[in-house]
Design brief:
Elements (H helix, E strand, L loop, with lengths): L1 E3 L39 H12 L7 H32 L3 E2 L6 E2 L3 H8 L3 H41 L10 H14 L9 H29 L17 H19 L5 H5 L8 H31 L17 H37 L4 H4 L1 E6 L3 E6 H20 L3 H29 L6 H32 L11
Antiparallel strand pairs: 1-4, 2-3, 4-5
Helix pairs in contact: 1-6, 1-9, 2-7, 2-9, 2-13, 3-4, 4-5, 4-10, 4-12, 4-13, 5-10, 5-12, 6-9, 6-10, 7-13, 7-14, 13-14
Amino acid sequence: MDESDSAPLVRGARAFETSCHGEGNSSLCHSDDDDGRPKRTGTVLTAAAHIITAVIGSGVLSLPWSMAQLGWIAGPIVLFTFAIVTYYMSLLLADCYRSPDIVTGKRNYTYMQAVKANLGGIQVWFCGVVQYASLIGTSIGYTLTASISMVAILRSDCLRRTGKPSSCHISNNPSMILFGAVQIILSQIPDFNKLWWLSIVAAIMSFSYSIIGLGVCLGKLFDGCHFHGTYGGVVAIGNTTETQKAWLICQALGNVAFAYSYSMILIEIQDTLKSPPPENKSMRKATSVGIGVTTIFYMLSGCVGYAAFGNDAPGNILMGFESYGPYWLIDFANACVVVHLVGAYQVFSQPVYACVEEFVYEGSSGSGFIYKEFVLSLPMDWTYRFNIFQLLWRSAFVVACTLVAMLLPFFNDILGILGALGFWPLTVYYPVEMFIAQMQVRKWTKEWLTLQVVSATCLLISVAAAIGSIEGVIQDLKVYKPFKTILR
């Protein structure tokens, strides 16, 4: 292993990219982009893969449960409405990558930079707090979800061997630790631009388990030859009071919001696109593909899952087939969930890595520890360049997320809180406000009023979803034992 004393020429997310500049040559070379950074190579396909990887995640597994709380009338309407809002707001946000001109203006590399360029002031700090809290929360949520699927595979094997459900209670903690160990290794991928292969694999996995879940639900549905569910969802009788029913509806809204959330990394995804064509045009196409495919899967998964299980739909649809084969297919689907979340975790955590590293590099004053690189020689004349600070900090981040996931293992409630936290400010409010500022939309015009009504409505939904999900966490905490509660 050789030590390199040269400081990186590019900071932040691309801090440790190899530059094509030769010694004594300060001019840009053919592999540099118009801003001096390494040439972007992303396409509509890779951007769509990033979107699908980010959107079709653990949220799809909770959709039948959300449908059960909303019922046959409100459920599909809510799913489709969230899709329309997410799609339209994503188009507005895609035009904020460059400013002031949306085609030839200065690049905004992150969501926060776009907010700073268009709004400025305290808006930037508020955006940063919400965005990175949402990104970190999503990483924690994905750790939870991956462990549920890993334990489901182990439990399935135990049931086949013993036939006794009572003897197959398996802790989620070892699975979370294993997932975290894998993420420590993958966290050393330098930046978003190097994630394209992992996102494509993850997107394939998301299609796989979504199709399997849909197929098994169809099998269960046709086997019973009966559509389950009611027009109004779970009925407020017995152990479910009217107040609890209201909390569950709010929590379901948060779960649906989480299922569609990816706006917090849209700008970062767009920053991987090559040009020409203009990045906003490519991103619009990628958004159309990503949201379109996602909505089809969500409508099918949510509706078919609800039809198969009715108001008894489990919080995680793959957990509903414990006594309904084929076991090997459900195990494979859960394995696909784990592989998908391995990639999705990195898609959401890379912006966090980039933000912290950019901050540290700017304040380090040339510290040897911060900048020093090491080169590891690999077979086939490959080399891997890494930095001790990057290795330690990213590993610490993964460890912290894993510990929090082990402390707060509440699947549906956590998804609802994450959805509520990020939906209104990141998916709706900032895209609307930046569009108004960029296009100089005058107050009280029809366009301005329409955008404000949509924003205010989504704010109310986010508040309701947050209250419902927090109430769910409060109820869970009454019977929760740290590091001992087993997720199901």
